[in-house]
Amino acid sequence: MKLILSKVIPSPLDMKLQLVHALDARGAFLLADRWKMLLLHPHGVLELLWQTTDEDVAYQWRGFFDDRLSDSLYEEIRQLPNGFQLLSKEDYLRIGASDLYKSARSLPNIYQGHENTVISFMGKVIALLTLEKEGVVELARIRTKGKDLIQEALHPVQNLIVYGTNHGELFAQPFDQDQFGKPAKIDQLPNTCYQIRFTGDGRKMFVAGLGYVKMFGCNGHGFTEKASVTTAVRSFELVDDYLVLNKGMHGIDIIKMADKPERIESMDLPFPIDKMLYLAPQRVFLLISGSTNEWALLNWAEG
């Protein structure tokens, strides 16, 4: 397996992006700042979806809730890489209009899990919610273990949340429709946790953080560490049996994750990488540099 650099282009958007998503159904990347929203197609063609020169309009950007993001586009970005889904716009508005978080210092992150469960993350509290005609009701809550939660992922099959902390602690939190189970510590990681991702069948879990990547086996009852790599990494993408590592200023590594991880290829880029996205049907990567405000497209090739 190898990566081929196909194109580097100057970004037509501000460095601070409001939306960055890979849209598998459309076969394009969705990107937006306050002034423009566009699609970037795999061969580098840009398709403008919306634009304004009005400063008042630009500074009123509302992110996911903005009317400039069409309902069809919103549906395409609801599935998140960490296994959770965004709620419908209407449900978020109902929660915002309720009294549940009126006194909160910061707004919680609220997602949809399996079987329409609604899960809220705020500070060191995870809560299960239900949305009723009368309003929003909190069914159960539990305090997280360890230090502050900074990354979470949902198992693709089980009602199981895995979360990592800024001190490298990794925990598993089971739940059902209206209550939480007993949490369990999976591992003490070498450092801060950056990303957690399950394979589609839920049998493997990958965790990356400051200076490491780990692979765990998951048999439905617990987790077992299978492999570990010491490496610089900001984020990663899963492609078949490979991990593609975004190493920031150190470029990209491709690692075959077997019982013994094997580095297949490395690539240097003309800029440090801040964000990396993967368009699976087209097997194309988008790399974004925040320091040079450039984008690069890479093709994933056999051989």
UniProtKB/TrEMBL annotation:
It comes from the Bacteria. This is Uncharacterized protein. It comes from Dyadobacter sp. 676. The lineage of its organism: Bacteria, Pseudomonadati, Bacteroidota, Cytophagia, Cytophagales.
